[in-house]
From TrEMBL:
It comes from the Bacteria. It catalyses: 4-CDP-2-C-methyl-D-erythritol 2-phosphate = 2-C-methyl-D-erythritol 2,4-cyclic diphosphate + CMP. The gene is ispF. This is 2-C-methyl-D-erythritol 2,4-cyclodiphosphate synthase. InterPro entries: MECDP_synthase, MECDP_synthase_CS, MECDP_synthase_sf. GO terms for biological process: isopentenyl diphosphate biosynthetic process, methylerythritol 4-phosphate pathway; terpenoid biosynthetic process. A divalent metal cation binds at D8, H10, H42. It comes from Allochromatium warmingii (Chromatium warmingii). Belongs to the IspF family.
Length: 169
């Protein structure tokens, strides 16, 4: 078993879509970032990479590389998962927390869980997403941005042939 932890934060920016956990959330601002700014997926990627001892998201997908400008973070997550699968690892479970004063995220959590479970190739019951506020304290509490944390447990895959079908999709 391998445990990894990840964290990410981005500030809000006008004229950007808000994408969290691969789901577009109706809001008047999105995240300022080189990619689509999905802080939840970025924290999750860092947790996955950390558990496998493979560094962090910036090492694999640097914001200095134009190839990742505006990229859908789900693509990055799938690439991380492919790397894990090629090493005989799979996600046993993932637990994540979004930290945001606004917008209200609870209604969107079921869709996030479904989306992330599909990309992680694991049952939705093993993907947990929570949301909390900071009670108006700090940058998230003032509504300046959103942060996310993630913890994952990886296990050795007894049979990677089932995972190779996912990688081909």
């Amino acid at each position: 078993m391998l445990i990894g932890q990840g964290f990410d934060a981005h500030r809000f920016a006008a004229e950007r879509r808000l994408i969290l956990g691969g789901v577009e959330i109706p809001h008047d601002q999105g995240m300022l970032a080189h990619s689509d700014g999905d802080v939840l997926i970025h924290a999750l990627c860092d947790a996955l990479l950390g558990a496998a001892g493979l560094g962090d998201i910036g090492r694999h997908f640097p914001d200095t590389d134009a190839a990742y400008a505006g990229i859908d973070s789900r693509i990055l997550l799938r690439r991380v998962c492919e790397s894990l699968h090629s090493r005989g690892l799979r996600v046993h479970n993932a637990d994540m927390t979004l930290i945001a004063q606004r917008p209200k995220l609870a209604p969107h959590i079921p869709a996030m869980r479904e989306t992330l479970a599909a990309d992680l190739a694991c049952p939705v019951e093993r993907v947990n997403v929570k949301a909390t506020t900071m009670e108006h304290m700090g940058f998230t509490g003032r509504g300046e941005g959103i942060a996310a944390s993630a913890v994952v447990l990886l296990i050795e895959a007894p049979d990677t042939s089932a995972l190779s079908a996912f990688s081909a999709a």
